[in-house]
Amino acid sequence: MKIKNLFFIFALFVVSLTTLAQTPKREFRGAWIQCVNGQFQGMTVSKMQEVLISQLEALQKAGINAIIFQVRAEADALYKSSYEPWSRFLTGVQGKSPQWDPLQWMIDECHKRNMELHAWVNPYRAKTKGTIALSPIHPYNKNPEAFVEYAGQLYFNPGLPENRKYICKIIHDIVSRYDVDAIHMDDYFYPYPNPGEDFPDGVAFAQYGRGYANKGDWRRDNVNVLIKEIHETVRKCKPWVKFGVSPFGIYRNKKSDVNGSNTNGLQNYDDLYADVLMWINNGWVDYNIPQIYWEIGHKAADYETLIRWWAKHASERPLFIGQDVLRTVRSVDPQNPTQHQLPAKMKLQRTISGVQGSCQWYAAAVVDNPGNYAALLEKTYHRYPALMPTSPFMDDKVPAKIRKLKMMWTYQGPVLAWNKPKAKNEMDEAVQYVVYRFTNKEKIDIEDPSKIVAITRDNFILLPYDEGKIKYQYVVTALDRLHNESKPVKKKVKL
User: Fold this and answer.
1) 226-264: string of b/e by CB count within 10 Å (b at 16+)?
2) What does pTM read for this prediction?
3) pLDDT at position 20 over 70
4) Domains observed in the chain
5) CA–CA distance from 130 to each of 126, 133, 147, 150 (Å)?
């Protein structure tokens, strides 16, 4: 045990030396929480909430600032829906009410911890292999002609215009009723190819081919149209809600496209009919998290090759990197065989221009702390809080300054408090505050994340008191829904 502890201390020292002198003030630090693996199925309400709180607390400690929570895995719902049945991944029976609203509860718990909540939906999948019975109100039972069966699963036929309209209706329903920060889709567009089986969309192609001679081009356009319409749906409903995707890690291989990556694997463009670059270049998505789950040095899909490719070709919109926790800690750094690959991957993430953060697959793996992964995030890479990257293409107007900053005494001790700034509309409204602390004679630099003492939704913080011996300068700024930061307001205090 002592040897292990010494090794861990040494590892922390080594990675600290390789970490950038200043960690970013703004960085997306996400984690996926999935339901489709059945981790919550059959749990009581109290047990599921206990598990989720435990995960959120551990993730917050590790510096995670965004949760991507799966709420629609198979045309079902982990929220109250008038259109689709309760998910079997809650109670074990599709359509059976869990007697609570997991999405609303997660929004509240994430916002309480100053985390974003991204509602993760699967657009086309309507039944997974493990689902034995569909609820009477499942959309398949209302309109079976809208679906196709492939590889033992049911899918909305992407070639039918009515299905795009329906999916947009579901998205609008979620965004309009819930205070989500984003709508998220992962890599499941057209399904992953099943060898020897063609996707059965010939009838739809004949009826809605729109003049396409090539079925592959038509399939890609079906997805393109859906992505564009979802983006428009979200914008019209709530212009501060983002729409993001996390595609498979390879767009195209160089052997298929001279501009592709030097890789050899399944391709978004050719195999999943997902033209991610078109979505980015046309502004139809607000962020992109390619799932670069392989290790540095992988023969077919090298991590470094792929992160550099995405940074070069897809940084017109915020680019974050999807990280596989277990693969990372199970793989040795080729340049440093004494450690796993997290330090090397973080160095790439923070030194390659255009990359603004990462997302961890999957949340529970971070919590389990294999290879001291969570500890390294907490102690080294996320040791200072981080604001979210901004989205200037959505809104770049900063909120007004906070008002009436003052220190007052309470029964708990000294409190720094302020009034919410005035706002003309919801886009300009302050929803969070950043509190910085400097010594009395220290130059105020709010770009230094080491000076952040709190990111909070409250309009006050409790101050540490040491018999009034030390003078400090506290600085408070306001953040709007898209994390634009106001001008600072300063208060000198003696603690």
Assistant:
1) bbbbbbebbbebbebbbbbbbbbbbbbbeeeeeebbebe
2) 0.95
3) no
4) 2-381 (3.20.20.80), 403-494 (2.60.40.10)
5) 12, 9, 18, 14
